[in-house]
Amino acid sequence: MSFPATRSDRGEETKGPAPKIPAVLLLTELFPPAVGGSPVLFEAIYSRLRNTAVVVLADNKVAVRPVAVRRDATGLTVVRRPLATAQWGIRAPQAFVNHVRVALEARKLGSRGEVIVHCGRALPEGVAAWLSRRFGGPAYLCWAHGEDIATALQSREFSWLMTRVYRNAAATIANSLSTGRMLEAIGMPPDRIHVIHPGVDVQRFRPHLDADLRARFAGDGRILLLSVGRLQRRKGHDLAIEAVSRLGASVPVSYLIVGDGAERAHLEGLVARHRLQDRVHFLGEVPARDLPRYYAACDIFLLPNRIDEGDVEGFGIVFLEAAATGRPTIGGRSGGVPEAVLDGETGRLVSGTDADELADVIQDLASSPEKRHAMGTAGRDRVCRSFTWERAAARVSEVHSEIASRDRVSPGDLYPRKRYHLTRLLTAILRPRQRSRR
What we know:
By secondary structure, the chain is an alpha/beta fold.
């Protein structure tokens, strides 16, 4: 397929000559309507790139309708193919075949000089880009989110593979300084690590009172607490529930939990054990369009994350979304969260392991409307100043242009003696052998 026309800085499409720099091919399993921070990040940033054609190669299992190629609501061209796989390594034959198949799909959309591949993660998306690059394919960069590195390091095979994907990438984009340090620890050269913090749409997420939600959950004057995110151990929902149980009747609160995940049954059991059914409410996934209402309705946002068996919070877009609505935030003092929450200024940081400490912090903020207002105002000011999606998209464009310029100056492949025709070679691997009939 041909790449779409580029968009100017004014948001207009430009026809005519091909772009001066290679187009972007975003390769990711995680893209809306999939939920989570990564899908939000990718759509928000790549829909805002200017003067660069963008095509997204995404998984088709979460598509609303089985359309192979379409323009989404943001104007991005999204190509849907079966990408998702539970086999991230290359030792198993079927796993290797899956990576080869994705590499071929990517090569159909653009060859060397036409595109630069942006991989949503090193594993599994980056493996296909790495294999393609080894055989003369386009340059690629990889995003790093923190938890993906921590997960890969739990496996010798995944660790080996991830390290090679990152080291052969033209650049990496880390979502926080914390994630950048993790990349350095596995041998990524510092000059190829670019820290680009996520952003938030400050027009969607803004302060306003949602009377309906407050009347439903805090009509009796309770302090309304909110958490948004997948129900995972490292997010700290269990600690928040324990803290609510310690507050007792002296600090009347309602705690709303937005999101779903593997920990839900355990958390519901914890609520029942402490008899908090009238104070803790599991809302499951809510439509993205409704999220700003929940943030704006709450008094305090909290997600007391911690490191859990190596699993770490790389940054936490939800803290920015809460801050944009003028709400104070409470987060864990680990991973990239201290970059999202300024302790004592826009919110508070806690250990993520001490329920009494968290209860004291909640009580302190609950008892002081003035402190909540000051932190909420500082948080929104900071987000509007430093954490917009437009700023993040501009930084990604800079990295993309830098790679394009470097690739033009040094056109040689990483493996010049192996410049076979990738499509012919890999198709031969995939093609079933035909047995002769006698």
